[in-house]
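RETRY 2/3 - previous attempt timed out on the joint model. Re-submitting the same 586-residue input unchanged.
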Amino acid sequence: MTTQPASNSPLPDVAIRASGLVKRYRGSRGQEGQEAVRGIDLEVRRGEVFGFLGPNGAGKTTTVRMLCTLLPISDGEATVAGIDVAADPAAVRNKIGVALQDVGLDGRQSGRELLELQCGLYRIPDPAGRAAELLDLVGLAEAADRLVSTYSGGMKRRLDLASALVHEPDVLFLDEPTTGLDPASRLTVWQEVRRINQAGTTVFLTTQYLEEADQLCDRVAIIDDGRIVNQGTPSELKSELGSDVLTIGLDPQEHGRARIALENLTDLGHITDAEEGLAVYVDDGAGSVADVVRLLAEADIRPRTVSLARPTLDDVFLASTGRRIESNTAEAAS
Amino acid sequence: MNETILLARRAVREVWRIPAATLPALFIPVFFLVVNLGQVNKVFPPSTPFLQGQHYVAFQIPVSLVFAVSSATSGLAMVTDIDIGYLDKLLTAPIRRTAIVWGRLAADLTRGIAVSILVLAVGFAFGARVKSGVVGVILLILLSALWGVAYAGIAIAIALKTKNVQTTNASFIIFFPLLFLTPNFVPLELLAPPLRIIARCNPVTYVITGLRDLVLYHDIHWGSLGACLLTIVLTGVLLTALSLRALTTFAD
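RETRY 2/3 succeeded.
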């Protein structure tokens, strides 16, 4: 099989397109199969950083694995770099770089050996030279000849990124690239992703971190339970909710009455249930606080807390799914 | 450079860097060899007809060789690659997927050659001689190593199917009945009739007999050597095909 550096070939304007994408796992012993991805439609434009935001188990990794040719597609269609994933997976592999959630590095090799092998597998003409260049680029030149098992989590992640870039791919898939990293390493990875994107590579990134999606992504799709529930630029998604969000802490039995009372708020965008009360989206948060307290008092409801903030992607997730992504993530982690 | 050679080089480096993965596979057969010799050396002195004037250790060397090279090491390395996500990285690279298995088998060949030399050295230290000479020694080493390659396919297939260390290790346990239902202690003719029938159906019998004839006789016995080689080739084709199929269906 011959492989050429993928960046030489022209890309269509759409780097990734999925239509009605479904992943259905077979059931065992007569049990019904499970659908991990339930009809995803998306379009990632060439040169953008596209974020796939959702809690653990939402279907992010399954989608990436289908797009990377690692999992067969049960239903629907997908193209990457203009190539049909199901019809020509080998051609897709020439165009993509992949860094999955489990850092796919062999700890028994040195960083240099690993990159030289990767260059060899992609038929890069000067594997040693390219490996040295990449090691330098990700700041691992000094640690190049140490076994990967001695690297820190951040170093491993950077090496994994470098190994996904040996052939200068058109599209880079990053599955939760900063999960488990300390804040400093996370920032380094973000810088690296920005640099890769500025060099012209389209980045498809899955994350459960709101800040990561907000900071890095040009556009974001929110995925929950195998379906995309909302998508747009982070600012578009947040502005759909109104300018401000008032989070009101309440006893659970008072949610219903409070919701009815607050429907009389003049400035109201909309109201959703939050973890410990209600999230009230309004245009002018500061101006509405007094009205909120007054309306609740008239209904004989005493709020435990009232806090004012700008809407975040977590609020977008809450408005789209009725749950907060951060609590889902914490539950999954515990 | 060819992707199979690249992956083989990586796997061989692994063998070199992690001797702990190879040494236990060597220790058990050498332990069995020493214990067996201690138990029956005096029962079968060199004057025993089937020993052709050699010490009993010469009769046991082929068993130890086959035992030493029939390991689950490649399968366990494959499970590790699955666990750490490295197999995913290889599967998203534009390479022939078969190269992943061939690379592992190339490492098995290297490991098999090294282990066979060590087992032969132990046998020589206990007084065994290879009567067919240098050619016989080379054939013993190569055929043993090739058997190791042929048998490795089962562990790789189990690794890819189950993705589980314990189950993959079980492929080594499967080999115990295969090894002991053979003329491993005495020639086929001296086995009890039911065991003789089973041994005749057991492919490992033909591998041991072929190797043993190289140790015991000056002249090369082409019949037993051919049967040995044919068994290795057939086992290799079957089990390698099984592992390649397991890799093809890995993601399903």
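Residues 133-162 of chain B form the longest helix (30 residues). Closing ticket.
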